[in-house]
Write a structure and sequence with these properties.
mainly beta; five-stranded antiparallel β-sheet; about 10% helix
Length: about 140
């Protein structure tokens, strides 16, 4: 059974790596192992959602339940905002819980038309599952 779950998780992970078409929601997954570490980080290449692009995304999760985020974002249209819902995932692909911002699982940042802008943010998560974290999944919308 564990082999089947592992194969399923691997297949699902590969689905989330591919950016969605323009105008749709996008999800991307990054893998690292937090077990035994004081902190761990997850990085992504370019992610597209609607008119928006995010590049050089990096989440750092700390054993105490704090988290930091940085990336650069842009849009080809004015008045857009990047919306992101990050979650921590275990090695079997099961969601352990969200990374939240003031209790809200949604992170939002406005974009500037045709200009790359740094986005720095902070969040928190339930530190009790830190050693079980193997992946992070970002679901995004613009």
């Amino acid at each position: 059974m564990s082999i089947i779950l592992t194969m399923f998780a691997a297949a699902m992970g590969s689905v989330f790596v591919v950016p969605a078409s323009a105008g749709t929601q996008s999800a991307a997954t990054a893998e690292a192992t937090c077990t035994g570490a004081g902190s761990c980080w997850f990085t992504w290449g370019r992610i597209a959602a609607g008119d928006c692009l995010m590049d050089q995304a990096k989440w750092t999760l700390n054993r105490n339940g704090s988290a930091t985020f940085e990336a650069v974002i842009t849009s080809s249209d004015s008045g857009d905002a990047w919306l992101m819902w990050p979650v921590a995932v275990d090695s079997n692909g099961f969601v352990l819980g969200p990374i939240t911002h003031g209790g809200d699982p949604k992170f939002v940042r406005g974009t500037v038309k045709n200009q790359w802008t740094w986005w720095f943010d902070a969040g928190s998560f339930d530190a009790a599952f830190f050693d079980r974290i193997n992946n992070m999944r970002l679901t995004s919308h613009c």
